Amino acid sequence: MAHRGLRFGIFLAPFHRVGDNPTLSLGRDLELISWLDSLGYDEAWIGEHHSAGWEIIASPEIFIAAAAERTKHIMLGSGVTSLPYHHPFLVAQRFVQLDHMTRGRAMLGCGPGALVSDAYMMGIKAEDQRRMMDESLGAIMKLLACEEPVTMKTDWFEMNQARLHLAPYTYPHFPIAVASATTPSGVQTAGKHGVGLLSLGAGLPGGNAKLAEYWRQGEAEAEKHGKQFSRDGWRLVINMHCAEEDERAFRDVARGERMETLSYFSETLGRPPMRSENPLGDGLKAGTTLVGGPETIIKGIQRLLEYTEGGAGGVLFRAHEWANREDTMRSFELFARWVMPHFQGSLTMPLQSREWCSENRQGIFGPSMNALRKAFVDAGQEVPDHMRMKLHTGKVEL
Questions:
Q1: Nearest to 134, CA basis, from 110, 102, 105
Q2: Short-list 37, 29, 38, CA closest to 59
Q3: Distance from CA of residue 51 to its chain's centroid?
Q4: Angle of the 325-334 helix axis to the 22-39 helix axis, nearest 10
Q5: pLDDT of amino acid 2
Q6: Which SUPFAM superfamilies does the record cross-reference, listed alphabetically (predicted)?
Q7: In what helix (H) or strand (E) does residue 196 lie, and over which residues does it extend?
Q8: Is pLDDT above 90 for 91?
Q9: Contact of 15 with 45, CB cutoff 8 Å
Protein backbone atom coordinates (compact mmCIF):
# COMPACT_ATOMS: atom_id res chain seq x y z
CA MET A 1 0.00 0.00 0.00
CA ALA A 2 1.45 3.36 -1.03
CA HIS A 3 1.48 5.77 1.88
CA ARG A 4 1.01 9.16 0.33
CA GLY A 5 -2.09 11.21 -0.20
CA LEU A 6 -5.03 10.67 2.13
CA ARG A 7 -4.93 8.43 5.17
CA PHE A 8 -7.97 6.27 5.86
CA GLY A 9 -9.28 4.65 9.01
CA ILE A 10 -12.22 4.24 11.35
CA PHE A 11 -13.73 6.03 14.29
CA LEU A 12 -14.90 3.19 16.55
CA ALA A 13 -17.26 4.54 19.21
CA PRO A 14 -18.42 1.66 19.00
CA PHE A 15 -22.13 1.34 18.16
CA HIS A 16 -23.60 -1.98 19.27
CA ARG A 17 -27.32 -2.58 19.52
CA VAL A 18 -28.60 -3.20 23.05
CA GLY A 19 -29.50 -6.87 23.29
CA ASP A 20 -26.40 -8.03 21.43
CA ASN A 21 -23.90 -9.98 23.54
CA PRO A 22 -21.50 -7.23 24.72
CA THR A 23 -18.59 -9.62 25.25
CA LEU A 24 -18.85 -10.86 21.67
CA SER A 25 -19.27 -7.28 20.46
CA LEU A 26 -15.93 -6.28 21.95
CA GLY A 27 -14.34 -9.30 20.30
CA ARG A 28 -15.79 -8.26 16.93
CA ASP A 29 -14.32 -4.81 17.39
CA LEU A 30 -10.86 -6.30 17.82
CA GLU A 31 -11.39 -8.54 14.79
CA LEU A 32 -12.41 -5.50 12.74
CA ILE A 33 -9.22 -3.63 13.57
CA SER A 34 -7.13 -6.69 12.72
CA TRP A 35 -8.95 -6.89 9.38
CA LEU A 36 -8.31 -3.20 8.68
CA ASP A 37 -4.65 -3.65 9.54
CA SER A 38 -4.34 -6.46 7.00
CA LEU A 39 -6.09 -4.30 4.36
CA GLY A 40 -3.68 -1.40 4.77
CA TYR A 41 -5.87 1.11 6.64
CA ASP A 42 -3.83 3.73 8.45
CA GLU A 43 -5.68 4.52 11.67
CA ALA A 44 -8.31 3.39 14.16
CA TRP A 45 -9.65 5.72 16.86
CA ILE A 46 -11.46 4.10 19.81
CA GLY A 47 -14.06 5.86 21.95
CA GLU A 48 -14.65 6.26 25.68
CA HIS A 49 -18.20 6.12 27.05
CA HIS A 50 -19.75 5.12 30.36
CA SER A 51 -23.53 5.11 29.83
CA ALA A 52 -26.42 4.66 27.37
CA GLY A 53 -25.76 1.02 26.57
CA TRP A 54 -24.56 1.22 22.96
CA GLU A 55 -21.00 2.61 23.05
CA ILE A 56 -19.58 0.05 25.42
CA ILE A 57 -15.81 0.69 25.49
CA ALA A 58 -14.99 2.40 28.81
CA SER A 59 -11.20 2.45 28.44
CA PRO A 60 -9.74 3.07 25.00
CA GLU A 61 -6.25 2.59 26.48
CA ILE A 62 -7.00 -1.03 27.45
CA PHE A 63 -8.55 -1.67 24.06
CA ILE A 64 -5.58 -0.09 22.24
CA ALA A 65 -3.15 -2.30 24.17
CA ALA A 66 -5.09 -5.41 23.18
CA ALA A 67 -5.44 -4.29 19.55
CA ALA A 68 -1.73 -3.49 19.32
CA GLU A 69 -0.88 -7.12 20.09
CA ARG A 70 -3.12 -8.28 17.23
CA THR A 71 -1.86 -5.83 14.58
CA LYS A 72 1.37 -4.78 12.91
CA HIS A 73 1.03 -1.42 11.21
CA ILE A 74 -2.21 0.45 11.95
CA MET A 75 -2.03 3.51 14.20
CA LEU A 76 -4.27 3.29 17.29
CA GLY A 77 -5.77 6.30 19.04
CA SER A 78 -8.40 7.19 21.58
CA GLY A 79 -11.45 8.61 19.88
CA VAL A 80 -11.62 10.24 22.26
CA THR A 81 -10.31 10.34 25.81
CA SER A 82 -12.79 12.59 27.65
CA LEU A 83 -10.26 14.80 29.40
CA PRO A 84 -12.55 16.23 32.13
CA TYR A 85 -12.99 12.68 33.46
CA HIS A 86 -9.28 12.18 34.22
CA HIS A 87 -6.36 13.86 35.91
CA PRO A 88 -4.16 15.15 33.04
CA PHE A 89 -0.99 13.78 34.63
CA LEU A 90 -2.40 10.25 34.42
CA VAL A 91 -3.60 10.72 30.83
CA ALA A 92 -0.11 11.79 29.78
CA GLN A 93 1.53 8.90 31.64
CA ARG A 94 -0.80 6.27 30.15
CA PHE A 95 -0.32 7.43 26.57
CA VAL A 96 3.43 7.71 26.92
CA GLN A 97 3.38 4.10 28.09
CA LEU A 98 1.24 3.10 25.10
CA ASP A 99 3.62 5.02 22.84
CA HIS A 100 6.46 2.81 24.06
CA MET A 101 4.50 -0.45 24.09
CA THR A 102 3.27 0.08 20.51
CA ARG A 103 6.65 1.39 19.26
CA GLY A 104 5.09 4.64 18.15
CA ARG A 105 1.63 3.54 17.02
CA ALA A 106 -0.36 5.30 19.77
CA MET A 107 -2.36 8.51 19.32
CA LEU A 108 -4.26 10.66 21.80
CA GLY A 109 -7.66 11.96 20.80
CA CYS A 110 -9.14 14.58 23.15
CA GLY A 111 -12.66 15.75 23.82
CA PRO A 112 -14.87 17.22 26.53
CA GLY A 113 -17.09 14.11 26.75
CA ALA A 114 -19.83 13.33 24.26
CA LEU A 115 -22.52 11.92 26.57
CA VAL A 116 -23.86 14.33 29.17
CA SER A 117 -25.03 11.29 31.13
CA ASP A 118 -21.39 10.29 31.70
CA ALA A 119 -20.51 13.71 33.09
CA TYR A 120 -23.68 13.81 35.21
CA MET A 121 -22.74 10.58 37.01
CA MET A 122 -19.34 12.07 37.86
CA GLY A 123 -20.77 15.36 39.05
CA ILE A 124 -19.32 17.38 36.16
CA LYS A 125 -21.41 20.28 34.89
CA ALA A 126 -21.99 20.37 31.15
CA GLU A 127 -21.07 24.05 30.95
CA ASP A 128 -17.64 23.28 32.47
CA GLN A 129 -16.62 20.43 30.19
CA ARG A 130 -15.04 22.40 27.34
CA ARG A 131 -13.09 24.65 29.68
CA MET A 132 -11.84 21.61 31.57
CA MET A 133 -10.76 19.95 28.33
CA ASP A 134 -8.72 23.00 27.35
CA GLU A 135 -7.08 23.21 30.79
CA SER A 136 -6.25 19.51 30.75
CA LEU A 137 -4.77 19.58 27.25
CA GLY A 138 -2.62 22.56 28.21
CA ALA A 139 -1.22 20.60 31.13
CA ILE A 140 -0.63 17.50 28.99
CA MET A 141 1.28 19.48 26.38
CA LYS A 142 3.55 20.97 29.06
CA LEU A 143 4.24 17.51 30.48
CA LEU A 144 5.03 16.02 27.06
CA ALA A 145 7.51 18.80 26.35
CA CYS A 146 9.72 17.35 29.12
CA GLU A 147 11.36 20.74 29.64
CA GLU A 148 10.76 21.49 33.30
CA PRO A 149 8.57 20.34 36.19
CA VAL A 150 4.95 21.45 35.83
CA THR A 151 3.13 23.12 38.69
CA MET A 152 -0.54 24.01 38.08
CA LYS A 153 -3.69 24.40 40.10
CA THR A 154 -7.24 24.68 38.80
CA ASP A 155 -10.61 24.16 40.46
CA TRP A 156 -10.51 20.45 39.54
CA PHE A 157 -6.89 19.27 39.37
CA GLU A 158 -3.51 20.16 40.84
CA MET A 159 0.09 19.29 39.88
CA ASN A 160 3.12 19.97 42.03
CA GLN A 161 6.49 19.80 40.24
CA ALA A 162 5.06 17.06 38.06
CA ARG A 163 7.21 15.39 35.44
CA LEU A 164 6.76 12.30 33.31
CA HIS A 165 8.32 9.04 34.36
CA LEU A 166 9.30 8.40 30.70
CA ALA A 167 9.77 10.70 27.75
CA PRO A 168 7.53 9.85 24.78
CA TYR A 169 8.82 7.15 22.44
CA THR A 170 7.77 9.32 19.48
CA TYR A 171 9.65 12.61 19.16
CA PRO A 172 8.60 15.15 20.18
CA HIS A 173 5.40 13.30 21.13
CA PHE A 174 2.75 10.99 19.71
CA PRO A 175 0.03 12.45 17.44
CA ILE A 176 -2.67 14.38 19.31
CA ALA A 177 -6.02 15.55 17.97
CA VAL A 178 -9.10 17.30 19.37
CA ALA A 179 -12.62 16.29 18.41
CA SER A 180 -14.94 18.90 16.94
CA ALA A 181 -18.64 18.18 16.37
CA THR A 182 -21.24 20.94 16.45
CA THR A 183 -19.51 23.88 18.14
CA PRO A 184 -16.32 25.79 17.25
CA SER A 185 -14.72 25.08 20.64
CA GLY A 186 -12.98 21.92 19.45
CA VAL A 187 -11.24 23.50 16.49
CA GLN A 188 -10.31 26.54 18.57
CA THR A 189 -8.71 24.32 21.21
CA ALA A 190 -6.85 22.36 18.53
CA GLY A 191 -5.52 25.58 17.01
CA LYS A 192 -4.56 27.02 20.39
CA HIS A 193 -2.37 24.02 21.20
CA GLY A 194 -1.20 23.30 17.65
CA VAL A 195 -2.52 19.74 17.48
CA GLY A 196 -4.65 17.78 15.01
CA LEU A 197 -8.40 17.94 14.48
CA LEU A 198 -11.07 15.22 14.32
CA SER A 199 -14.03 16.78 12.50
CA LEU A 200 -16.97 14.63 13.59
CA GLY A 201 -19.21 17.40 12.32
CA ALA A 202 -18.32 16.41 8.74
CA GLY A 203 -20.78 13.54 9.08
CA LEU A 204 -23.59 15.55 10.70
CA PRO A 205 -26.38 17.44 8.91
CA GLY A 206 -24.92 20.65 7.50
CA GLY A 207 -21.53 19.95 9.01
CA ASN A 208 -19.57 19.64 5.79
CA ALA A 209 -20.64 23.15 4.74
CA LYS A 210 -18.91 24.56 7.84
CA LEU A 211 -15.60 22.75 7.42
CA ALA A 212 -13.69 25.57 5.71
CA GLU A 213 -15.09 28.18 8.12
CA TYR A 214 -14.07 26.18 11.17
CA TRP A 215 -10.62 25.50 9.74
CA ARG A 216 -10.03 29.21 9.29
CA GLN A 217 -11.02 29.75 12.92
CA GLY A 218 -8.48 27.15 13.98
CA GLU A 219 -5.77 28.79 11.90
CA ALA A 220 -6.53 32.17 13.45
CA GLU A 221 -6.36 30.68 16.95
CA ALA A 222 -3.06 28.97 16.17
CA GLU A 223 -1.56 32.20 14.87
CA LYS A 224 -2.71 34.02 18.01
CA HIS A 225 -0.80 31.53 20.19
CA GLY A 226 2.23 31.12 17.93
CA LYS A 227 1.38 27.54 16.93
CA GLN A 228 1.37 25.64 13.66
CA PHE A 229 -1.96 24.20 12.47
CA SER A 230 -1.36 21.63 9.75
CA ARG A 231 -3.98 20.23 7.40
CA ASP A 232 -2.08 16.94 7.50
CA GLY A 233 -3.40 16.45 11.04
CA TRP A 234 -7.02 17.10 10.00
CA ARG A 235 -9.30 14.05 9.84
CA LEU A 236 -12.88 14.17 8.51
CA VAL A 237 -15.27 11.67 10.12
CA ILE A 238 -18.23 10.48 8.04
CA ASN A 239 -20.49 7.45 7.51
CA MET A 240 -19.64 5.01 4.72
CA HIS A 241 -20.73 1.66 3.33
CA CYS A 242 -19.38 0.26 0.07
CA ALA A 243 -20.81 -2.57 -2.03
CA GLU A 244 -20.32 -3.67 -5.62
CA GLU A 245 -23.24 -1.52 -6.79
CA ASP A 246 -25.23 1.40 -5.39
CA GLU A 247 -28.50 -0.55 -5.13
CA ARG A 248 -26.84 -3.36 -3.20
CA ALA A 249 -25.25 -0.88 -0.78
CA PHE A 250 -28.61 0.80 -0.07
CA ARG A 251 -30.24 -2.56 0.64
CA ASP A 252 -27.38 -3.52 2.97
CA VAL A 253 -27.76 -0.55 5.31
CA ALA A 254 -31.37 0.73 5.17
CA ARG A 255 -32.79 -1.33 8.02
CA GLY A 256 -29.78 -1.09 10.33
CA GLU A 257 -29.39 2.67 9.89
CA ARG A 258 -33.01 3.30 10.78
CA MET A 259 -32.81 1.03 13.83
CA GLU A 260 -29.70 2.79 15.14
CA THR A 261 -31.17 6.25 14.62
CA LEU A 262 -34.49 5.48 16.27
CA SER A 263 -33.32 3.21 19.09
CA TYR A 264 -30.16 5.06 20.11
CA PHE A 265 -30.16 8.67 18.99
CA SER A 266 -33.89 9.25 19.40
CA GLU A 267 -35.23 6.92 22.10
CA THR A 268 -32.06 6.73 24.25
CA LEU A 269 -30.39 10.13 23.82
CA GLY A 270 -33.56 12.12 23.13
CA ARG A 271 -32.37 13.71 19.93
CA PRO A 272 -34.96 14.63 17.28
CA PRO A 273 -36.20 11.36 15.75
CA MET A 274 -34.44 10.75 12.47
CA ARG A 275 -33.77 14.53 12.19
CA SER A 276 -35.94 14.22 9.06
CA GLU A 277 -38.28 11.79 7.38
CA ASN A 278 -35.36 10.27 5.47
CA PRO A 279 -32.03 10.91 7.23
CA LEU A 280 -30.15 8.37 5.13
CA GLY A 281 -31.37 9.95 1.91
CA ASP A 282 -30.69 13.44 3.22
CA GLY A 283 -27.18 12.42 4.28
CA LEU A 284 -26.49 10.99 0.84
CA LYS A 285 -27.66 14.17 -0.89
CA ALA A 286 -25.65 16.39 1.46
CA GLY A 287 -22.53 14.24 1.20
CA THR A 288 -22.29 13.61 4.96
CA THR A 289 -23.01 9.90 4.38
CA LEU A 290 -21.47 7.84 1.57
CA VAL A 291 -23.28 4.66 0.55
CA GLY A 292 -22.79 3.02 -2.84
CA GLY A 293 -20.38 1.35 -5.20
CA PRO A 294 -16.71 2.32 -5.46
CA GLU A 295 -17.25 5.02 -8.10
CA THR A 296 -20.00 6.62 -6.02
CA ILE A 297 -17.78 6.59 -2.93
CA ILE A 298 -14.87 8.14 -4.87
CA LYS A 299 -17.07 10.99 -6.06
CA GLY A 300 -18.41 11.47 -2.53
CA ILE A 301 -14.93 11.82 -1.03
CA GLN A 302 -13.91 14.24 -3.78
CA ARG A 303 -16.99 16.33 -3.01
CA LEU A 304 -16.25 16.23 0.71
CA LEU A 305 -12.70 17.47 0.17
CA GLU A 306 -13.98 20.37 -1.90
CA TYR A 307 -15.79 21.67 1.19
CA THR A 308 -12.45 21.96 3.02
CA GLU A 309 -11.11 24.48 0.48
CA GLY A 310 -7.61 23.09 0.65
CA GLY A 311 -7.81 19.44 1.63
CA ALA A 312 -7.31 17.36 4.76
CA GLY A 313 -4.90 14.68 5.91
CA GLY A 314 -7.34 11.82 6.35
CA VAL A 315 -10.87 10.49 6.20
CA LEU A 316 -12.27 8.29 8.96
CA PHE A 317 -15.42 6.21 8.74
CA ARG A 318 -17.69 5.95 11.75
CA ALA A 319 -17.75 2.23 12.50
CA HIS A 320 -21.38 1.11 12.59
CA GLU A 321 -23.37 -2.08 12.22
CA TRP A 322 -25.93 -0.89 9.70
CA ALA A 323 -25.20 -3.96 7.57
CA ASN A 324 -24.64 -7.56 8.62
CA ARG A 325 -21.18 -8.72 9.65
CA GLU A 326 -20.18 -10.19 6.29
CA ASP A 327 -21.26 -7.13 4.29
CA THR A 328 -19.59 -4.77 6.75
CA MET A 329 -16.24 -6.52 6.47
CA ARG A 330 -16.63 -6.72 2.69
CA SER A 331 -17.37 -2.99 2.58
CA PHE A 332 -13.97 -2.21 4.07
CA GLU A 333 -12.29 -4.67 1.69
CA LEU A 334 -13.96 -3.17 -1.39
CA PHE A 335 -12.98 0.31 -0.25
CA ALA A 336 -9.36 -0.76 0.25
CA ARG A 337 -9.23 -2.43 -3.18
CA TRP A 338 -11.03 0.06 -5.40
CA VAL A 339 -11.28 3.42 -3.61
CA MET A 340 -8.22 3.84 -1.39
CA PRO A 341 -5.67 3.63 -4.26
CA HIS A 342 -7.46 6.46 -6.06
CA PHE A 343 -6.47 8.88 -3.28
CA GLN A 344 -3.05 7.49 -2.37
CA GLY A 345 -1.25 7.43 -5.72
CA SER A 346 -0.58 3.69 -5.56
CA LEU A 347 -1.90 3.12 -9.10
CA THR A 348 0.28 5.69 -10.86
CA MET A 349 3.20 3.44 -11.70
CA PRO A 350 1.15 0.32 -12.66
CA LEU A 351 -0.95 2.46 -15.01
CA GLN A 352 2.09 4.10 -16.54
CA SER A 353 3.75 0.72 -16.98
CA ARG A 354 0.66 -0.72 -18.69
CA GLU A 355 0.32 2.27 -21.01
CA TRP A 356 4.00 2.09 -21.95
CA CYS A 357 3.74 -1.57 -22.85
CA SER A 358 0.53 -1.04 -24.78
CA GLU A 359 1.87 1.88 -26.78
CA ASN A 360 5.13 0.08 -27.64
CA ARG A 361 3.85 -3.46 -28.00
CA GLN A 362 4.68 -3.78 -31.71
CA GLY A 363 8.30 -2.75 -31.31
CA ILE A 364 8.84 -4.66 -28.04
CA PHE A 365 6.80 -7.84 -28.39
CA GLY A 366 7.13 -8.21 -32.18
CA PRO A 367 10.76 -9.40 -32.12
CA SER A 368 9.92 -11.73 -29.27
CA MET A 369 7.17 -13.40 -31.28
CA ASN A 370 9.50 -13.74 -34.27
CA ALA A 371 12.04 -15.41 -32.00
CA LEU A 372 9.43 -17.89 -30.76
CA ARG A 373 8.35 -18.75 -34.30
CA LYS A 374 11.97 -19.23 -35.31
CA ALA A 375 12.46 -21.62 -32.40
CA PHE A 376 9.74 -23.88 -33.81
CA VAL A 377 11.18 -23.68 -37.32
CA ASP A 378 14.72 -24.43 -36.07
CA ALA A 379 13.35 -27.49 -34.29
CA GLY A 380 11.75 -28.68 -37.53
CA GLN A 381 8.21 -28.21 -36.22
CA GLU A 382 5.24 -26.36 -37.64
CA VAL A 383 4.52 -22.94 -36.11
CA PRO A 384 1.19 -23.09 -34.17
CA ASP A 385 -1.69 -21.16 -35.71
CA HIS A 386 -1.99 -18.78 -32.77
CA MET A 387 1.60 -17.68 -33.30
CA ARG A 388 1.22 -16.81 -36.99
CA MET A 389 0.14 -13.19 -36.34
CA LYS A 390 2.40 -10.68 -38.04
CA LEU A 391 2.48 -7.89 -35.50
CA HIS A 392 3.90 -5.34 -37.91
CA THR A 393 0.96 -5.75 -40.34
CA GLY A 394 -1.74 -7.00 -38.02
CA LYS A 395 -2.53 -9.81 -40.53
CA VAL A 396 -2.52 -13.55 -40.04
CA GLU A 397 -0.25 -15.77 -42.12
CA LEU A 398 -2.15 -18.37 -44.14
A1: 110
A2: 29
A3: 24
A4: 20
A5: 46
A6: Bacterial luciferase-like
A7: strand 196-199
A8: yes
A9: no
